[in-house]
């Protein structure tokens, strides 16, 4: 028995819908990850999908940081946020960030 063309089209549309919804759930839960080589590349991460994150980036102290290694980033979608991890020049950090109002800023030495 031969399938009707309408049934084939409906199955294809259903498969496309399942893939789109699956992608939306996956990136909503796990977000996007990547590596930026400098601050300009990190700006694209902040300005990608959410204008509020882009506004934070333009006003952030991130422009003052001098990274010495690639910047690993993770951007969450459902709760808009960006987490970064990298290495910074400690001498420049202490000099340039001394005026910033950090609450718990201290060196993470082995103080055990």
Quick recap:
The protein has 4 helices and 3 strands; from the N terminus they run αβααββα.
Explained architecture:
It is a single chain. This protein has 4 helices and 3 strands. It folds into 2 domains: 1-30; 31-112, no CATH class. The chain is α+β, with helices and mostly antiparallel strands. The relative contact order is 0.12. A 3-stranded antiparallel β-sheet has the order 1-2-3. The longest helix is centred in the first third of the chain and has 26 residues, at 5-30.
What are the SSEs and their pairings?
Layout: H1 5-30, E1 32-36, H2 39-46, H3 51-59, E2 71-76, E3 81-85, H4 90-96
Antiparallel strand pairs: 1-2, 2-3
The span between the termini is 76 Å
Order of helices and strands: HEHHEEH
Q: Which geometry do the CA atoms define?
A: elongated
| Nearest-integer average pLDDT | 78
Residue fraction in strands: 5-15%
Strand sequence of the main sheet, in spatial order? 1-2-3
Secondary-structure content class: alpha+beta
Structurally, how many domains make up the residues? 2
Figure out the total of helices: 4
Radius of gyration: 22 Å
Low-confidence blocks of residues: none
Largest sheet: 3 strands, antiparallel
The amount of helix comes to 40-55%
Give the number of DSSP strands.
3
What are the main properties of this structure?
single chain; 112 residues; alpha+beta; 2 domains; three-stranded antiparallel β-sheet; 45% helix; elongated
């Amino acid at each position: 028995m031969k399938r009707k063309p309408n049934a084939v089209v409906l199955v294809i549309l259903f498969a496309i819908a399942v893939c789109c919804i699956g992608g939306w759930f996956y990136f909503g839960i796990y977000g996007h990850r990547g590596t930026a080589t400098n601050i300009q590349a990190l700006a694209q991460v902040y300005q990608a999908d959410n204008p509020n994150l882009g506004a934070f980036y333009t006003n952030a102290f991130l422009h003052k940081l001098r990274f010495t290694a690639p910047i690993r980033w993770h951007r969450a979608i459902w709760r808009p946020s960006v987490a970064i991890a990298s290495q910074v020049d400690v001498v420049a950090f202490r000099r340039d960030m001394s005026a910033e109002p950090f609450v718990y800023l201290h060196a993470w030495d082995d103080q055990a």
